[in-house]
């Protein structure tokens, strides 16, 4: 019996909307006709719109009465969601709907106790019987048990996300995702290589078992990418036929049977609506196309579900629709929709149906068939794909590549068998791929440079140097700059993934014109590329020097290049001497005696490092070419830091000294050190620079480096198999030397001062453009110019979520931020900078539309749950501190924003609206700044060699000193316990740490390295010790007067100054 209060609450929720009526019946719930309407993005409502084409909300499946249990469960969940969250959050994240589209939500948010008492519905009971008997073998269930155990033991290796099935709110589906990097490991750390796996827990009489609801392909690799995909290995361990299917250029969609009459439609790892209510998710768009295909074929979803249930299949399709999401290659109207390319058995072992079966299924159910051809031998496959690769076209159309489908004929590798043997069971389906770089990569470059020019302005100076290596791309950039200046409106939707292909086609048509031909001819007539000669003399040997910071993948590229071309490879990290720099240079020079090309594997991020290399080979005849692999700082520093930090974390301890630290995140501090010290490469420092890309995968980065070596050094181009082998060796590389245990000991965990989101934005670039416009108030423009002149614009902008000084009042938020920070894959957020606000002391940018980024490749419920539980008052105060006047603590920006939001017409406060400035951001870590022991000479920059030794040491005050000071403050008869002394010792040590950290942050904002007395006083003010600071100002003045007097009495000379020359390896 439901309490009357519950029934009344449910009635309120169910009668909240209007437009279409349906009656519900239950003995204890007498509901009036329930009316529900299409949901407005800004209006709180329990139900959201269905895609049934009627303009009304989703159907109730042809019945005016629903199972009362389902109704009550929906109502109870909706009640919790509506009353708890609709007050201030965007609806699209957590609204509900009756019918097919139940939005996903964090289970911890919406589970309610009344649900537990509800009886099991008849469909659920039927599902339980069917699931275990036919659709859930013991081996399949054991696989999920193994994944659950592995995810608890090592969440960085395997993790899962639970969703409510859109077609049935009573069923939860778990999506499994493996660490992409670990698919390459031999032996595999995973119990399955499935890429895309959705499972369901089913309660039996004795225990919980598991059913595989949808299963993707096993992870498959490019030629040579792993030992078992070399041409020789494929010939030994696979058998005919070899079915080559066109590699579609879209996004994958899985279609499977949730129940005998309901479907589950997912993307690779997710289902249900997007976190962003304004955009359809891939799964939603796939569902829309499925309905269209079924309608055209005269079929129903129930019929498809029954067939997939009976066969225990997952239909695997590619969503190709340029109106939804343009990729690189275009699709005409007749090829737009779902391209069916696989039917997989929902079993532990990978088993996919033969292509004739897939094609027949596509024809019967209205899908677009995937083009394919059949060959009999591996040599035929190689000959055919190499011929296609030379033109980049098949049947007159550009393509990305082929997926080759075959089967394993030899047993898996065991005992002494060669590593090149297949790791799959005999009889298993087996895929590999053959990818073509051109023109695919060139088209992708055109897309990226266009986005850059639209966001930063149509100027050649805004284009990353890494995109200028192709002559065709240089012609394209000149053309598109002119087009943007002529008519920017034609690019209005470009950054949203629309118009990319149309722009490219306009350019290709222009190339055929007389004007285009002349532009190409001018490009061809440019002088030969730098790096081939110097002052008329040809080069002899070559040094390849990365210009980088930790985490870009420079050693992986060096290992791969060394394998491909036989280059010498000298690693700075392998040198364990105290003064590593001279030894490193000596080793490079010695290596040149036996190698024509040597890779000087070190960050080389300082000018003096490049000078040392140049000077070491100055006397060589013919001259030695210095060739840089240069990672330019052409993105916001916070973006670069996130990319490199994630890579260091992924590699774990597979490095000589810098290890990924998932808890204290100490590796992030080291990366910041290098980034802050790095000096941009000037053209005259090297003979030729190859511009690299921070965001490229290892495969793409190696392709870029190989192209440069072929073009500049004249080495023969390796085939795809060789490149694949080099990638496999680079991924499996382990350093020969590692730091001693003492050197690599974890840092003492520093006190956390605040938790924040690091904003991936260049404030000088974004705000500078806005302040240059005509409508800017004079006072705001003057303040902005002053901040720039005084170098007071925040170099590392962030959004503070909670500060230590807000404790204990915001302990709950503090703990939730801590949990998010320690998560193995912290989410990537997105937000909009909506307004710039300032007074005469501080400038800030307000934050709006805070959400989980749709670009987050590791999306799970953590980020969404965090946002849902973020209090309104916290969301309302979110801001980025742009800058402050000297001596003004940044915390004043928070007060300014809160005050301005209450009254936007305050005297002395100016504001300026920003237009569509969207920013991404990730967990900033803890806001910890290491505290120096005291005033000291500026330290030399941290070195590769010293990374493992760069650890914050305990700096407690000696207990005797503490005791002496305490005794001087109390009567002589008083006694002080040891506990009290130790407590004060700890308190004072922490106080020193806090004060120094605040002072260090001020120095960092002003780009100074030495903390002065005024900085310490500033730190005291920010922590609330204004009165003490005023007193200490007098003490500081007297101290300096005394030091000046004492200094005048000292004899001059005879002592070193103590200032160290800035080097990486001293």
From TrEMBL:
Region (Disordered): 40-61, 1042-1066
tRNA ligase kinase domain ranges (all copies): 543-682
Domain tRNA ligase phosphodiesterase: 738-915
Domain T4 RNA ligase 1-like N-terminal stretches: 194-440
GO function terms (MF aspect): ATP binding; protein heterodimerization activity; RNA ligase (ATP) activity
InterPro entries listed in its UniProt record: CBFA_NFYB_domain (IPR003958), Histone-fold (IPR009072), P-loop_NTPase (IPR027417), T4-Rnl1-like_N (IPR019039), tRNA_lig_kin_fungi (IPR015966), tRNA_lig_PDEase (IPR015965)
Compositionally biased region (Polar residues): 41-54
GO cellular component, one term: nucleus
GO biological process assignments: tRNA splicing, via endonucleolytic cleavage and ligation
Domain Transcription factor CBF/NF-Y/archaeal histone: 956-1017
Name of protein: Transcription factor CBF/NF-Y/archaeal histone domain-containing protein
Lineage, highest ranks first: Eukaryota, Fungi, Dikarya, Basidiomycota, Agaricomycotina
